[in-house]
User: Which sequence fits this backbone?
């Protein structure tokens, strides 16, 4: 941001002369400081994968998990502030429950995405609140709509994706992801490439250890969103380790 | 005036994507005296240092019982902790009323986190200036959670917060591997050793008698409702910790020959169910 | 329009004795749903009878599990209106629910329970609802509704096993009365099935699975013969540590040859 401190950047309800709301840009900076998160959409499956940087060796492995289950078949992953993420997960669950109460069916991801992005957007309008420091990835699979993947930014804008990334290594992850053709991938391939990307974009020099976390929903999980399911995670982690070792040996030569 | 122009309100993001007001609230935790939480396979233990602010006063209450399966230890603004503990107590009570069972610890923490989050996002609130260590026991075993004013919460193997807690952390990290398998007595002693290391050296040196170290200890676990230990029990464990000190510090994996020394009182007897007010280790201020 | 003729209190939501101070704009209490609030200026009319009804549910506890059975009829008054409706539901891997009484109310309460199961799943902590907890929750809800003079017209059987595999079998009715036992029954079953099962109960031990399933078969037969709001088709829910499912529908073994000898009606 070249125009830091021009005085127009202290409130979410204030435009700068060149038409920006700086508070939203600053909130995005919080997202960029967070560990990388990716979502990829295959033929009959969506995978959410997270590079969870281990901040403290006294934490249990499952501390500060960044993947959530919102509905039976809907997963959510976040990059940004943990506390905001937990809160928005709760909001998303309430929206899903509200939809189910009214229509007796699971909320289609398109509508959930609309509702949650509307919620995030409301926090960009007033000086009394701050925008969420969050990038939210939503993933679902069902028979009718197949695999679905959306991403919501702190500004409240959202798009559907074949593959998307947020956090520290967003750019590298995008570069990596462009090498794949996810749309035709089966579940195994998708899970493996999810592992590969996260392990490849992890910066060992800057960050210490990290834990690979994965959410998966698809035909092969019977339309149930699973978090860190033992067998799928193992598949991803093995692929990731292998890719990292291959990279390392290349560098040595 | 202000350290920078972005730290006046909790609703202002800094250009680096930081919330200075929240970070300052976290600094409030470091003003409180240290407290340690740790667990083995069956028990979760809280140990807190209670240093009276003056010789004429009693020390602050550091450990607050929430429910029979749960209690918290605090560092920071005690008054803020009272609000949070009231919330936790009423949540536990209402859960027990509805379901006839104790509130699963991770779920309770999630609701607490979401309550605290709103204070980090609104102009008309300030974050709670208190850090919590929460010790609980449910069907998944013992838990230690750390809750920060930022409304972040972390599931921990062991944790310490408060002033000079870095030295306690060093102790915990060094012995982390042994905690899971050690006995109930051991885990309490480890807690006492960890909290001892947060004392400044000059105070440690004048601490000739074990009674000089003012601590509150609480334990919860398998067939053990949350309980704040009495003065006698504290002395007993302080004594035990002192005796074991040398061996425990030298080798982390100790032999179990002299474990499970029966404490002076039948301390395993489960007390009548229901949350009780904790007994503070030192005399509380009483109305004349 | 707000009436400004009277001065407003100086400080709305201000300090009140014995309370935490809540200021304006903070967390406001969620409004109660309309059916739970008290009567309006013209009173409130509550439902006073069940309309579409299911008849008996019978549950028997055996060593290591529970059986719950109900026929598949939902009546509209005396009309056998819906003849293929399951009234025994699997709630999760540890809980069965059998419902009798107003079927709309049963469906409504089941929706609420299903939402709770989704919440369990969302928490992702491996903790699931136990039958005892569900029975407790139902008791609170039903008693609360009756206290507001607006009961749910249902009589439900909650059955299942807890985390240690210990079976639980309980009954909650529209007034919030609740009890648990080795046999529970609702509707006509309370009169016809309960004594039949109690008669066969060995004093020194639980039923075996065979005994329990034979008793269920017999109870459903007796209920079909003697309860006009029943049909000879029923489903049975089985819940043990290893399995939780609803089986059937099964047919009652009918035999009407004795009918020729019945006289005097």
Assistant:
């Amino acid at each position: 941001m070249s125009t830091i401190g021009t005085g127009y950047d202290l409130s979410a309800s204030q435009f700068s002369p060149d038409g920006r709301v700086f508070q939203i840009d600053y909130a995005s900076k919080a997202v960029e400081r967070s560990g990388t998160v990716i979502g990829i959409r295959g033929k009959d499956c969506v995978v959410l994968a997270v590079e969870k940087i281990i901040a403290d060796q006294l934490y249990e492995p499952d501390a500060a998990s960044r993947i959530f289950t919102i509905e039976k078949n809907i997963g959510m992953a976040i990059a940004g502030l943990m506390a905001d993420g937990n809160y928005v997960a709760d909001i998303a669950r309430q929206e899903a429950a509200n939809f189910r109460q009214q229509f007796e069916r699971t909320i289609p991801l398109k509508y959930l995405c609309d509702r949650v992005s509307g919620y995030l957007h409301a926090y960009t309008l007033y000086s009394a609140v701050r925008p969420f420091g969050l990038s939210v990835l939503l993933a679902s699979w069902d028979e009718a709509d197949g695999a679905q993947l959306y991403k919501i930014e702190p500004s409240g804008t959202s798009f559907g994706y074949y593959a998307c990334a947020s956090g520290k290594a967003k750019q590298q992850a995008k570069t990596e992801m462009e090498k794949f053709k996810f749309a035709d991938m089966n579940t195994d391939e998708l899970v493996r490439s999810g592992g590969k990307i996260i392990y490849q974009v992890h910066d060992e020099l800057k960050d210490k250890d990290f834990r690979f976390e994965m959410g998966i929903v698809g035909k092969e999980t019977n339309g149930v969103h699973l978090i860190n399911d033992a067998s799928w995670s193992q598949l991803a982690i093995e692929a990731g380790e292998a890719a990292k070792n291959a990279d390392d040996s290349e560098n040595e030569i | 005036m202000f350290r920078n122009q972005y730290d006046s309100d909790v609703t202002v993001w800094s250009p680096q994507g930081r919330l200075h007001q929240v970070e300052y609230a976290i600094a409030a935790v470091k003003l409180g005296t240290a407290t340690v939480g740790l667990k083995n396979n069956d028990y979760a233990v809280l140990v807190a240092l209670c240093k009276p602010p003056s010789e004429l006063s009693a020390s602050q209450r550091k450990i607050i019982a929430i429910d029979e399966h749960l209690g918290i230890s605090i560092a920071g603004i005690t008054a803020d902790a009272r609000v949070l503990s009231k919330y936790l107590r009423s949540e536990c009570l209402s859960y027990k009323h509805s379901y006839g069972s104790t509130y699963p610890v991770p779920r309770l923490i999630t609701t607490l986190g979401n309550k605290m989050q709103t204070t980090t996002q609104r102009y008309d609130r300030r974050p709670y200036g208190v850090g919590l260590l929460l010790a609980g026991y449910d069907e998944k075993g013992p838990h230690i959670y750390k809750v920060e004013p930022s409304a972040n919460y972390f599931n921990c193997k062991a944790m310490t917060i408060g002033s000079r807690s870095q030295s306690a952390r060093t102790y915990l990290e060094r012995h982390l591997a042994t905690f899971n398998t050690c006995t109930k007595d051991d885990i309490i002693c480890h807690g006492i050793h960890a909290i001892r290391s947060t004392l400044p050296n000059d105070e440690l040196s004048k601490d000739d008698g074990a009674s000089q170290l003012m601590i509150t200890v609480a334990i919860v676990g398998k067939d053990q409702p949350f309980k704040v230990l009495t003065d006698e029990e504290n002395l007993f464990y302080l004594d035990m910790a002192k005796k074991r000190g040398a061996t425990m510090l030298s080798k982390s994996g100790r032999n179990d020959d002299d474990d499970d020394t029966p404490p002076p009182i039948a301390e395993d007897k489960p007390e009548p169910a229901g949350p009780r007010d904790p007994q503070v280790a030192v005399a509380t201020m009483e109305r004349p | 329009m707000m009436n400004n003729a009277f001065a407003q209190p100086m400080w709305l939501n201000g300090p009140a004795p014995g309370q935490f101070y809540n200021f304006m704009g903070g967390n406001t209490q969620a409004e109660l749903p309309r059916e739970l609030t008290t009567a309006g200026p013209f009173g409130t009319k509550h439902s006073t009878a069940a309309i579409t009804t299911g008849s008996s549910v019978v549950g028997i506890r055996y060593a290591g599990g529970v059986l719950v059975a109900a026929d598949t009829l939902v009546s509209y008054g005396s009309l056998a209106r819906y003849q293929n409706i399951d009234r025994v539901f699997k709630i999760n891997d540890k809980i069965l629910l059998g419902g009798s009484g107003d079927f709309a109310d049963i469906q409504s309460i089941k929706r609420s329970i299903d939402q709770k199961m989704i919440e369990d799943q969302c928490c992702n902590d491996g903790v699931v609802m136990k039958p005892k907890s569900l029975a407790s929750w139902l008791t609170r809800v039903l008693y609360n509704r009756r206290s507001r003079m607006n009961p749910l017209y249902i009589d439900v059987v909650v059955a299942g096993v807890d985390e240690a595999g210990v079976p639980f079998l309980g009954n909650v009715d529209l007034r919030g009365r609740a009890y648990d036992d080795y046999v529970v029954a609702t509707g006509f079953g309370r009169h016809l099935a309960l004594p039949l099962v109690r008669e066969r109960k060995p004093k020194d031990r639980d039923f075996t699975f065979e005994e329990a399933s034979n008793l269920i078969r017999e109870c459903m037969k007796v209920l079909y013969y003697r309860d006009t709001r029943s049909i000879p088709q029923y489903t049975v829910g089985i819940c043990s540590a290893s399995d939780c499912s609803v089986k059937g529908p099964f047919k009652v073994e009918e035999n009407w040859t004795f009918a020729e000898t019945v006289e005097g009606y």
Summary: The interface with chain B takes residues 20, 23, 25-27, 123, 125-127, 130, 132-133, 136-137, 140, 163 of chain C (CB under 8 Å). Residues 139 and 151 of chain C are 12 Å apart (CA to CA).
